[in-house]
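Database export, one record per block. Field names are fixed; values are copied verbatim from the stored entry.
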Amino acid sequence: MQVHYLSQCDSTNRWAKENYNQLMPYGAVYTLNQTCGRGRLGRRWENAANQALYYTAVVSMPMVQPETLPQLMSLVAVDALRQQYGAVCQIKWPNDLLLQGKKIAGILCESTADPKNPDVRIWVLGIGINLAQPKQQFDAQNLPHAGSLAMAGYAVDTKRDVPELVTRITTGLAHRLEDFAKEGFAPLRKDYCAACVNLGRHVTWQAGENTATGKCADVDDMGRLVVETDTGTNEIFTGEVSVQGIYGVL
């Protein structure tokens, strides 16, 4: 298993896609200084040099349900942070990690084709984890909902902690990956639901041209958010979902 450290890069996902042959069939790249990262829906992920971990794994194998890779990665990160720091994180569907009501991690999963063999898909699984940023840094960036391990009261030494955290994420993903590739999200569902902050809360999402609201009842075996409304049950798999009751609406 190849794990590459970069002193700086524009984006670990981009580097992984451009250099996937160095990581195949399973490997990872990470840095503490990512200058041009992206989150879901094209959002910019703010760089925090030497205060956050930026990590991307590359996987190439057949998968029955690759669309739920973000949920898999969120569970892997929850496990790694609990093992490393004793931190109990929640997951905001599908894959944001919250700690004490603040977002500390985001995940972006992408795919590309192997130019040498277009039938082979390469999965690029990126995560950014806020480790040591102080509250003042998020205030200056106008990010009131963001947080870090340090803000939550955990002792963080990035130079000491990051190599071990990278190992925990990499081995945790490898441990779950074979079963996930064959069976998809269903075997993960119990653990995922235990960590999912959406369950039992009212949520709002975009339904076509309209905004809909309902109570989140479950996450099904397909990784979809199951929401009950006055007009029936909705299964949501794509789009932005806001959760009521977490510092207003998240």
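Remark 1: The CA atoms of residues 26 and 59 lie 5 Å apart.
Remark 2: The first helix runs from residue 12 to 18.
End of record.
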